[in-house]
Every structure is written in structure tokens, then in C-alpha cells.
Amino acid sequence: MAAALLAADAAGQAMPEALFSGAHAGAVGLRVHRNTVLGALANALRLGFPAVDKLVGEAFFDRMAVEFARAQPPRAPQLDEYGQGLPNFIAGFPGTEALPYLGELAQFEWQFADLARCCAAPDSSGPSLQLEGGVRLHFAAPLRIHAARYPVEQLRAAILAEDAIALAGIDLAPRDHHYAMWRTEYGVNVRTISAASARFLTAVCAGADAMAALGAAAEGLGEAAIAPILAQEIVPAGFVRVEAPHGG
Fold first, then answer.
1. CA gap 216, 226 in Å, rounded
2. How many domains does the chain have?
3. Which candidate, 5, 23, 103, 180, has a CA 20 to 30 Å from the CA of 143?
4. Confidence band (pLDDT; 50, 70, 90) for 3?
5. Residues 6 or more apart from 104 whose CB is under 8 A from it?
6. pLDDT at residue number 7
7. Which residue segment(s) compose the domain that 80 sits in?
């Protein structure tokens, strides 16, 4: 029955006559349920990908969502956690050729929605790093580092604000973009960071010590460039708390 509900073709929608005999074929009785199931899945995906929905329009989003639901139906009853595979599915989806960044925008929205479902952990629960001089950095939990070729955070903000002028002014030339994303008690925060900071934070989140994290950040730059990066991008950021030594 589940396969028949999700099937797009008449053969797949057919039901065994021995089990569903009557005045009408079993597939006829399933039509209303099929619409309910596919509509519910499309709406669940719409809630998780609001910028993608606004950008492509309701009808086009529904078509993508239904095709995705048929190809990758949910495996758990929590529909708010459904849609992890949608970004890869819609990248290159027919009709999206003029939106090369759509898949990456969807991936960013998935990360955003996934973080929104998390609970912000106490300061002591995130990774921490001991620096020279007794200074310790405590990082937010959960903290994620996101990379994209397009300015997905700017795109999402402009689309959700329905700001056509801001959207038209965004540089869409592919290049590296890096973001720190973290959960607080008030919601999800996003901060644009450099590639060096992204390497540093990725190492920290993986459990690296200060030397290894600083070495990752210095890759291709040299050690002299790291101090300004820490001072300008990491220490003042909302995802880190600085603990100075007593008397410092």
C-alpha cells in the first residue's frame, strides 16, 4: 500500500484485486489518501526550506517535493527531520538551470533547520582550547562550520525578506564562502568567517589542541597571519567565550 501511495504511474498504483475487490479498483480508493500523503510531505519540506520555497514558487516547489518524496520517502515518523537528501536531489533538477546555487541554498537551510532543532548546551559543554598565557577559549555547542561556493546566508536573508534590491545586488560569482553556525537559547546564529578561521574551528570541533588548530589555520598563510585572525574573527565572535587567567 505504501508503494502504491507513492507511485507516479498507473501500474505502480494498482492494488491486488484479491485483496481490494469491489465496485471500484483499489487504486481509485487510494487517490484521496495519495494526495493527503504527498501534500503532507511537501508541506513538511516547505517548512524546512522556506527560502527555496519562496525563490522557486509554491507550484514548482511542490513538484520538486513530490518527486523527492517518491524517490526518498521518510524513514521515520518525525517529519520535521525529513529532507536531508533534498539539497542533492534538487541540484540540477529540471527547470533550475538558471539557479545554480539552489542546491547549496537548500543545504544551508537544512543545516539551519537541523541546528534549530538542537538545544543550546551550557558553556562548559562545548569544545575548549587552552592558549598560551593561560587564556582558554570556550566554544558554543552545537557549533558547525559550513562551506559553500555561493553567498547562501545573504541569499537566504534577502529571499526571506522579499528584498528584490538586495537580492539583485548579491555577487553570485562562485567562490569560497565559510560560515560559523551555532545554537543559542534564542535561536540559530550565523557569522561569515574566513577560510583560515574555518580551518581553525573545524580542527577545534574535531578535538584538536591549540597547536594543531593554529597549524590548520596557518596553512598557506604563515604563523604571523594567525594572531590578527584570532583577534578579529574568533575572540570577538558570539560563539566563543574567553576565560582569562586569574589576575590577568
1. 10
2. 2
3. 103
4. confident
5. 87, 91, 148, 149, 150, 152
6. 63
7. 1-117
